[in-house]
Amino acid sequence: xxxxxxxxxxxxxxxxxxxxxxxxxxxFEVMATTTTDSKxxxxxxxxxxxxxxQFSEAVQIPDLKKFFKAETLIITIPPGRRDPNGFxxxxxxxxxxxxxxxxxxxxxxxxxxxxxxxxxxxxxxDEYSAVLPDTDSGRLMADTEILLAEQKVSMISLRLAGLIxxxxxxxxxxxxxxxxxxxxxxxxxxxxxxxxxxxxxLISEEKTQGVYNGxxxxxxxxxxxxTLAAELEGLExxxxxxxxxxxxxxxxxxxxxxxxxxxxxPSLTDWLRSI
Length: 275
Fold this sequence. Notes:
By secondary structure, this protein is of the alpha/beta class.
């Protein structure tokens, strides 16, 4: 791994911040954006060169010439489904990146994408499976992957399953709910530690390119996993309908076969019990 390289992160939140700190420990110079003014001193204190950037229509984007002088750009910002303007802001961000790339130093681009680009096709899904998203966020991510793949950089789409870990404990997802459908469907989730670990591996391996999936190799049922999560967090257990309708199992063929990646949290149920 190049210990003198520069890496820029678009987004330094729940995933980006721990990733940035790990990169600094490995000797990288890290620049990162945040949308919150109060986070600037926090990022500086961690050794990160921070930039206050928002991609809403009402806010002017600052000069980011230095930011784009890094060798690697990692886009960790999600589309923001809870924000009514999230999809539009995300689209503006991607258009801005495409405009800046030709005159930048960026040679490697890693997009944190989502396994929502795959349909619930009731099969084992790997990196070679058809992309047929059935949600708005999935369609946005699929379109973004295509647009960035057209740029003249080495492009990686890391399609992550649902992210869990500190600050995103799964017990509250369905706590107290009744008649929750699809109780026997397998879950596709990944722990924060593995999300960061996979990104570090993709950076360290020079020839990595294309699509990689990121999902824990064990897939308990929704009923088993979320009932256990609620119980261990002291929350009211959800009640699932014991059915298996729309589902998929996301596999990580390229990570495990090509990169020999070993998951830090292979069993989500074991992780729940350990904490």
